[in-house]
Amino acid sequence: MNIATYSPALTLLYVFALLWILMGVDPKAFSRKEHLLILFVLVLLSGGNHLLRELIGPATYGKLLFFCMHLPTFFMFLHIAKRGIIKTAFMILTALVFTTPTVLIGNLVRRVLLTDLPHALLLANLISYILMLLVAQFVFRNGFNYLIIHGDTRLFLLFSIIPLVFYVYMLAAVNLDFSALSSPPGYVVRMIPSIEAFGFYFLLPYIYKSLREKMLLKSAQDALQLTLSSSENQISLLNETNARMAIYRHDVRHQLIMLEGLLSGGKIEQAHEFVKAAMADLDAITPKRFCENETVNLLCSSYDSKAQRLGVQLKINARLPNSLPLSDTELCSVVSNGLENALKAASHPEVTDKWVEFYCEHKQNKLLIQIKNPYSGHITMHNGLPVSAQEGHGYGCHSIQAIAQRNGGLCSFDVENGLFALRLILPLPTDCNNQSRTV
């Protein structure tokens, strides 16, 4: 029996492994039952295509590839990878492009090494598929994982033009006669579209990553500017509070005179009510203190108010001195980004126990920060960073990581048992006031 009969099943197994690698599918995201179901569908699809090719013949089967192979694989990975319709369609077209080098490699292997061996075509195909999977794993994997996670859907529509044109070319080539191009130069002509398409994929992830890093830098700068603007607003509110305190101190003398008059007249109840009202006014204009450091204190005050509005309990344990040998800009960026993300996750409607823990301390010439919160759903991690599914989000963690690296520190983002934890350690110079306060 000609071993080429088994090519649809072998091709499907290759495409499945290729998409699994390039789309960054995490095996841990599936239960044992789901793994068995995926395996069952894969075997069923491979066996079904083999039987169909045997029944209707290779020529007719080639015209039905879209319906019997490409479309089922699309729906399969739409469920497995959960990357959306457009990205999944792009990757299915990508898989088609990545099958073309295997034809060239397989023919070379068969003609040079396996000419006289039985089942030479099978061995050549296996060697070519294994080589391409190794190339995908060690050359393309990181770039495509980055592209599929961070890529804008609109850009994927543009990226799809080249593989879509190539796909149409391949479908049309099924009915073309290439017998006149059987010589080596003619074979090169036949492979030119495949080489061009494959070259596009070789360059695409690296070009996109470079562009995105520039976009991330600009977005981080914009986010930092917003953080600074927020701090300026908080400082303005603090100055306004101080002004009200000065006015209140000026009025205290008159209030004491009023209180003395009430007590002298024997109006004890009225005096009690007057004192309660005065204390309420004082509490209303007295800013809450969380630590001696004004930058962190202002941010804690702002996010404490926001947490109350969101129905989240914000537990603050801040032990920072008034002066830190660290830029207020960087300190503000770390704290505000961390608390903003934590409050957003903890306030999600599906989270029943809504709380956020914020701890910071200056200890042994190091700045220690930890923010913990519950979350709902699944958090995708890429290169140690959580990935946001929303366009225009997810820059805060990149900013925190950049600040840690710039200052020779360490940061980690950990997910365990429904809890998310940000931990940051920054080494600080020794000329820092060690006075601190705990609230």
Jot down its keywords.
disordered N terminus, 439 residues, 7 strands, single chain, five-stranded mixed sheet, disordered C terminus
Number of beta-strand segments:
7
* Physical arrangement of strands within the biggest beta sheet: 1-2-3-7-6
Question: What's the overall geometry?
Answer: elongated
Question: Runs with pLDDT <50, length 5+?
Answer: 1-5, 177-181, 432-439
Please describe the biggest sheet, giving its number of strands, its sense, and whether it closes into a barrel. 5 strands, mixed
Radius of gyration (CA) equals: 32 Å
Number of helices: 13
Structural class: alpha+beta
H-E string: HHHHHHHHHHHEHEEEEHEE
Strand composition percent: 5-15%
Query: What is the CA-CA span between the terminal residues?
Result: 80 Å
Question: Could you estimate the helical fraction of the residues in percent?
Answer: 55-70%
Q: What is the residue-averaged pLDDT?
A: 77
How would you describe this structure to a colleague?
- With 439 residues, the chain is α+β, with helices and mostly antiparallel strands.
- Helices cover 66% and strands 11% of the residues.
- It has 13 helices and seven strands.
- It has helices spanning 7-22, 32-56, 58-63, 65-81, 85-112, 120-150, 153-159, 161-173, 184-264, 268-285, 294-310, 328-346, 395-406, and strands spanning 313-319, 355-363, 366-374, 380-382, 385-387, 410-416, 419-427.
- A five-stranded mixed sheet has the order 1-2-3-7-6. Strands 4-5 form a two-stranded antiparallel ribbon.
- A hairpin with a 2-residue loop joins strand 2 and strand 3 (366-374).
- The radius of gyration is 32 Å and the shape is elongated.
- It starts with 6 loop residues before the first helix and ends in a 12-residue tail after the last strand.
- Residues 1-5, 177-181 and 432-439 have low confidence and may be disordered.
